[in-house]
């Protein structure tokens, strides 16, 4: 599949991307719109093309699945699970423990409309839960937001590399669109790396002391120090691992900020309005945590205006405002409930911003 | 008496035990179980191939006492974590020690589905009829009428149901290969020299621990439930608590082999 052109669904691309970058185990629980992931990985279980793929289990609950992931990741294996909205809420317990135990693994949230059961249409309303911790205690997940089937295929490799480099869970935050969309892509050439886990993973302890993976520390001072070390790690990640895309921002008067599927629509709007002579650009955060604060701040210092577009009632906009400061105007366009803004709606919004602002 | 000193002498040489003193309350049998497990790991020579999943409750600090790899799981989730390890590394021995609240209340689903799938892991459940670590609240195993901090007038079956018989329920699951209830509580016996304590229960419990690991080696799921006291939270003197188990608790939770698919239990 590597290097081949293929017409494939986003969720399937994510599954094959994980398999080709060395997936050892998948722990499944079905929920729309993420279920093609477990279905694809169940079908491929036993395929001789993936000899390293040792385990597929459909669990009895979201809780069981994330805790199986914790067990699998504790052995240093490459494991993952996927879910959506209501299931992602149930995963938070496990993610809190895993972040503190510094376990590397992948989890995908193919975000649907919420809160509660909502519906199975696309939203980006899990942004807060994804980027601010989500479970109890202070912790962070890497959050990668693909905007295409191409990226759904390549982000598992990126995710595993980051997860093992920093010993931290990595979340791929898709949505019902990026998960369900079918696109013609060139499947990336991926390799199954050999991460060094010898200093911490549980397993055969012959010739070494016990390895203990634990989020508990009853001694206050020790817990303060342990968490302090993890918070230092977060700072290093915030300095070094920020990912974003800028499109025609250098001379732009208005910069659209959008991630995931919305950034695709926004890019089309930028192209249309550029033809009409409007200087519009796009800033697309790819890593939602670490958030590209510094790069966005740099753009703000030239007096540009920003338009933040999200599939929710305004979540990332808080991070955008923190980045650009109170002197910079940030407008907002939100759609929710499974509704995605059209190019025309965004164009109208930009033109109204233009009128009001000039 | 001779049996007792034999056990003590052997205890001094257990490699799988660290030298840390335990935090358990006086009279608690958690330390006894830790020692029986450690002795078994030594005996089977599997310490370096063993991963223990510690659970939330009084068993949580086991990583200080047992000299093997550990993962400390969230409340009730130890069997799921154990399954994750075992599926990726089938050559390892993976076991949990959980309380009754952990395994039979908040984590019942994880316990049942580990059994249902025949996951080759070993689960040890300490049944002391109460939530010990949190200060003595009602557990699924609390007996009708028993006083706890959340049943201050005695457990009322009309409101909270009766005690949860874990071994009997898990033993009905076809995926389980070995289910046994043992006791960690010594028996008072009188003989001509006066009052002595029989360690027969402990020897049986030790056998159950060993069988449970052997079942895992054969590829089967094993669960052993151990009757235990919690004199501090029962608000009983230690010996009275032990007597309460041997005289009252045992009537509602009879000892025995509930399931033995591989026939590891020898008379």
Secondary structure layout plus pairing:
The complex is a heterodimer of chains A (358) and B (267).
Chain A lengths: L4 E5 H11 L4 E4 L7 H8 L11 E4 L3 H13 L4 E5 L1 H17 L4 E8 L5 E4 L4 H5 L10 E3 L4 H18 L3 E6 H5 L1 E5 L25 E2 L6 H21 L3 E4 L6 E4 L3 H15 L4 E6 L1 E3 L3 H8 L4 E6 L5 H9 L5 E5 L8 H15 L1
Parallel strand pairs in A: 2-3, 2-4, 4-5, 5-8, 7-8, 12-13, 12-15, 15-16
Antiparallel strand pairs in A: 1-9, 5-6, 7-14, 11-13
Helix pairs in contact in A: 1-2, 1-6, 3-4, 9-12, 10-11
Chain B lengths: L1 H10 L18 H15 L5 E5 L14 E4 L5 H11 L4 E7 H7 L1 H9 L5 E6 L2 E2 L5 E2 L18 H4 L5 H5 L5 E8 L3 E5 L2 E5 L1 H18 L3 E7 L3 H4 L3 H15 L3 E5 L7
Parallel strand pairs in B: 1-2, 1-3, 3-4, 4-10, 7-10
Antiparallel strand pairs in B: 5-6, 7-11, 8-9
Helix pairs in contact in B: 2-8, 4-5
Task: Give a verbal description of the structure.
- The complex is a heterodimer of chains A (358) and B (267).
- Chain A is α/β, with parallel strands linked by helices and 358 residues long.
- Chain A is 41% helix and 21% strand.
- Chain A has two domains: 5-192 and 214-240, Rossmann fold (3-Layer(aba) Sandwich); 245-357, Rossmann fold (3-Layer(aba) Sandwich), CATH 3.40.50.920.
- Chain A contains twelve helices and 16 strands.
- Chain A is globular and about 70 Å long.
- The model of chain A has no long low-confidence stretch (mean pLDDT 96).
- With 267 residues, chain B is an alpha/beta fold.
- Chain B has one domain: 3-Layer(aba) Sandwich (Rossmann fold).
- Chain B is built from ten helices and eleven strands.
- In chain B, the strands form three sheets. In chain B, strands 2-1-3-4-10-7-11 form a seven-stranded mixed β-sheet, sandwiched between helices. In chain B, strands 5-6 form a two-stranded antiparallel ribbon. Chain B has a two-stranded antiparallel ribbon with strand order 8-9.
- The model of chain B is unreliable at 1-6 (pLDDT under 50).
């Amino acid at each position: 599949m590597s290097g081949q052109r293929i017409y494939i669904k986003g969720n399937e691309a994510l599954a094959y991307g994980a398999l080709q970058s060395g997936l050892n185990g998948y722990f499944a629980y079905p929920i729309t719109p993420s279920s093609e992931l477990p279905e694809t990985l169940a079908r491929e279980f036993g395929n001789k093309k993936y000899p390293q793929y040792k385990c597929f289990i459909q669990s009895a609950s979201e809780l069981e699945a994330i805790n199986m992931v914790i067990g699998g990741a504790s052995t240093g294996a490459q494991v993952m699970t996927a879910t959506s909205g209501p299931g992602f809420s149930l995963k938070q317990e496990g993610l809190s423990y895993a972040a503190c135990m510094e376990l590397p693994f992948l989890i995908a949230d193919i975000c649907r409309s919420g809160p509660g059961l909502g519906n199975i249409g696309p939203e980006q309303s899990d942004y807060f839960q994804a980027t601010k911790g989500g479970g109890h205690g202070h912790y962070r997940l890497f959050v990668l937001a693909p905007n295409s089937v191409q990226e759904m295929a390549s982000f598992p490799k990126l995710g595993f590399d980051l997860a093992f480099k920093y010993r931290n869970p990595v979340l791929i935050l898709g949505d019902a669109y990026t998960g369900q969309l079918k696109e013609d892509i060139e499947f990336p050439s991926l390799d199954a790396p050999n991460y060094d886990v010898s200093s911490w993973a549980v397993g055969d302890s012959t010739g070494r002391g016990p390895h203990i993976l634990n989020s508990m520390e009853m001694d206050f001072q020790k817990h303060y120090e342990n968490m302090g070390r993890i918070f230092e790690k977060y700072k290093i990640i915030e300095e070094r691992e920020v990912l974003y895309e800028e499109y025609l921002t250098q001379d732009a008067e208005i910069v659209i900020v959008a991630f995931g599927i919305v950034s695709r629509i926004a890019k089309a709007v930028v192209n249309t309005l550029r033809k009409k002579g409007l200087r519009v650009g796009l800033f697309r955060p790819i890593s939602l945590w670490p958030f590209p604060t510094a790069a966005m701040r740099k753009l703000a210092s030239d007096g540009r205006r920003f338009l933040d577009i999200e599939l929710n009632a305004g979540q990332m906009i808080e991070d955008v405002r923190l980045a650009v400061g109170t002197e910079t105007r940030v407008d907002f366009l939100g759609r929710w409930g499974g509704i995605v803004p059209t190019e025309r709606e965004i164009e109208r919004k930009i033109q109204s911003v233009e009128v009001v602002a000039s | 008496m001779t049996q007792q000193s034999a056990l003590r002498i052997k205890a001094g040489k257990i490699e799988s035990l660290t030298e840390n003193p335990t935090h358990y309350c006086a009279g608690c049998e958690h330390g006894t179980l830790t020692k029986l497990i450690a002795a078994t790991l030594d005996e089977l020579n599997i310490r370096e191939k063993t991963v223990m999943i510690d659970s939330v409750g009084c068993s949580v600090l086991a990583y200080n006492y047992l000299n093997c790899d550990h993962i400390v799981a969230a409340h009730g989730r130890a069997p799921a974590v154990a399954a994750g390890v075992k599926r990726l590394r089938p050559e390892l021995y993976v076991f949990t020690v959980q309380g009754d609240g952990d395994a039979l209340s908040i984590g019942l689903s994880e316990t049942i589905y580990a059994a249902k799938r025949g996951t080759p892991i070993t689960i040890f459940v300490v049944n002391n009829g109460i939530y010990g670590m949190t200060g003595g609240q009602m557990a699924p195993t609390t007996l009708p009428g028993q006083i706890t901090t959340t049943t201050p007038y005695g457990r009322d079956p009309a409101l909270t149901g009766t005690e949860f018989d874990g071994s009997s329920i898990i033993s009905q699951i076809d995926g389980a290969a070995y289910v046994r209830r043992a006791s960690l509580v010594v028996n008072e016996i009188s003989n001509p020299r006066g009052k002595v304590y029989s360690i027969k229960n402990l020897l049986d419990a030790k056998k159950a621990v060993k069988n449970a690991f052997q079942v895992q080696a054969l590829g089967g799921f094993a669960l052993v439930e151990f009757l235990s006291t919690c004199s501090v939270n029962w608000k009983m003197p230690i010996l009275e608590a032990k007597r309460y188990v041997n005289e009252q608790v045992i009537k509602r939770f009879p000892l025995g082999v509930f399931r033995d698919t591989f026939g590891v239990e020898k008379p």
